[in-house]
Amino acid sequence: MTSDPYDTLSPLTYARRAEPADLPELMDQPCTYEEFRDCLRDLAEVNRITQAYKPTLAFLSRIAERHEASQPLRILDVGSGGGDGLRAIAHWAHERDVAVELTGIDLNPYSARAAREFGDRKSSDSKNRSAPLAANIKWLTADVFSYAADAQPDVIVSALFTHHLSSPEIVRFLQWSEQTARLGWFINDLHRSRRAAFFFRFLPVIFGWHPFIRHDGPVSLWRAFVPADWQKLLDEANISGASIESHAMNRLCVARIRQVS
Question: Is omega for the bond preceding 11 within 30 degrees of 0, making it cis?
């Protein structure tokens, strides 16, 4: 039986970001593979319903315009989870005839296992036109800060990843992304909002989503960001030229396109 996160942080406040150490998510705690996989499956449904991929795909469309078409666009997804984000990117690339090399990296070993399992199911669907690309996604289990790619990624993306990090870790991740990505990077995460947290309490019940999501949804919104948070983190990382973008369905994203001659 999961606890109600509304009982764990008192008084309720959205004036500051809750650090992960102060307010843990169940996804980050020890659990069985089946629990983790089923949670990831329902998270993919959350992302589909909320059209969570749209900001990332719009960013990649801007990047693709600058990329030399003779070479595949190397995209690294950090905190790739069950892989639904990269499968959406594979479909985007297929529809636009963009050659890509896709890699997902996640610290949790269950993630790569689940991503392969979900990918096998997708590939067996004859109606899934992106299946050939999705089947070639490379799934890695590693700490991103110690990861050494065989070839420099052109683009680094992440979705619902940074709110799992402490603020100092986010600064480090920003610096790592800036140093590692050749063309740019994109962070897709949540806008901290009492209103969104209130409404999210009902969605898992209505759709029958996994108990982890019922608990972790409002926790994620406490651990999420407002534009001033991101500006402070960018300043601490000594990064200029990044944009902070609000999107529909309570998404707050940070985008950086490098000027490459």
Answer: yes
Interior/surface letters 163-184, b for 16+ CB within 10 angstroms, e for the rest: bbbebeebbbbbebbbebbebb
Q: Please say whether the beta carbons of 16 and 228 come within 8 A.
A: no
- Per-domain boundaries in the chain: 5-257
- The amino acid that residue 67 corresponds to is H
The whole-model pTM stands at 0.89
- pLDDT tens for residues 144-195? 999 988 889 999 999 999 999 999 999 999 999 999 999 999 999 999 987 7
Which residues contact residue 86 at a Cβ distance below 8 angstroms, ignoring those fewer than 6 apart? 75, 77, 80, 102, 104, 115, 134, 137
Residue 252, token pair as written in the block: 């707050």
Angle subtended by helix axes 33-49 and 109-123, to nearest 10: 60
Nearest to 137 by CA among 74, 187, 52, 43: 74
Which of these, 144, 167, 165, 172, lies nearest to 156 by C-alpha position? 144
Is 123:85 a contact under the CB 8 Å cutoff?
Answer: no
CATH topology of domain 5-257: Rossmann fold (3.40.50)
- CA dihedral over 46, 49, 55, 57, signed as positive or negative: positive
The CA distance from 258 to 261, in Å, is: 10
Helix (DSSP H) and strand (DSSP E) numbers for the chain: 10, 7
Tokens coding 114: 């689940």
Q: What is the pLDDT of residue 68?
A: 77
Position 46, amino acid = V
